[in-house]
Design brief:
alpha/beta, binds magnesium ion, binds 3-methylbut-3-enyl trihydrogen diphosphate, Undecaprenyl pyrophosphate synthetase, 8 helices
Length: 247
Amino acid sequence: MEDIDLNNLPKHIAVIMDGNGRWAKSKGAMRIFGHHHGIAAVRETVEACAEMGVGFLTLYTFSTENWGRPKAEVDGIMSLLVKTIGDEVPTLHKNNVRLKCIGDLNMLPNKAKNEMLEGIEKTKNNTGLVLSLALSYSGKWDIVQAIKQIAAKVKSDELKIEDINEQMFNGFLSTFPDPDVDFLIRTGGDHRISNYLLWQSAYAELLFLDDVFWPDFRKKHLIEAVKTYQQRERRFGKTGEQIKTIK
Ligand code: IPE
Ligand code: IPE
Ligand code: MG
């Protein structure tokens, strides 16, 4: 961790925690076994972010599209969620982590939804790492729910069409007021976004880890990933020369 430049940390890291099923399969086990073992990786990632001083960590936990998986797997993931939130919230709270949730919480079974809401309530005044779980989340869902809110305000004359701009649109996204994603990491070997934080990742640095399934992801992987991030030159449309002058 000493090699990390604490002045150049990504403010917001987003992770697509992929590969649980294949990890389990490689061990001759059921897919749900992989999801269980993913929890240790979540714990290490949260700890490492908190230790480094990363402000925001958003974990892709269950996508809108994941509802289409076999019922047994969906039920298994939902039970695991209830248990894990119950088990982990006291530690998160002790470590000053604020838990949040993005996604269509109403789609979740009541038990999972209530457990989540309790965790959010309990940790709401914490001032450390903001840990957002993307649950029943998709980037397109997020954009559409923002548009619906804006359209309702235009209809009731609270808002004029001329006032719609990127900054105000951002204010209706589920992630608001968190900053945009600086660094998006995906484990499991696939090179795609899978409908994650589409708007918020517009200028994110992307890192696809080909050799790590999520259950094997550890602090050392995150530290290596952050070092890779720190070697990137983020230009935001400008030229490399311009960036160097600003620095
Ligand atoms: C990610 O692992 C966890 C969820 C999508 C809930 P997968 O379950 O997608 O595992 P693979 O990609 O099939 O190996
Ligand atoms: C993305 O993984 C969703 C989560 C990690 C929760 P998927 O496994 O669902 O993505 P695809 O289907 O391979 O694109
Ligand atoms: Mg997958």
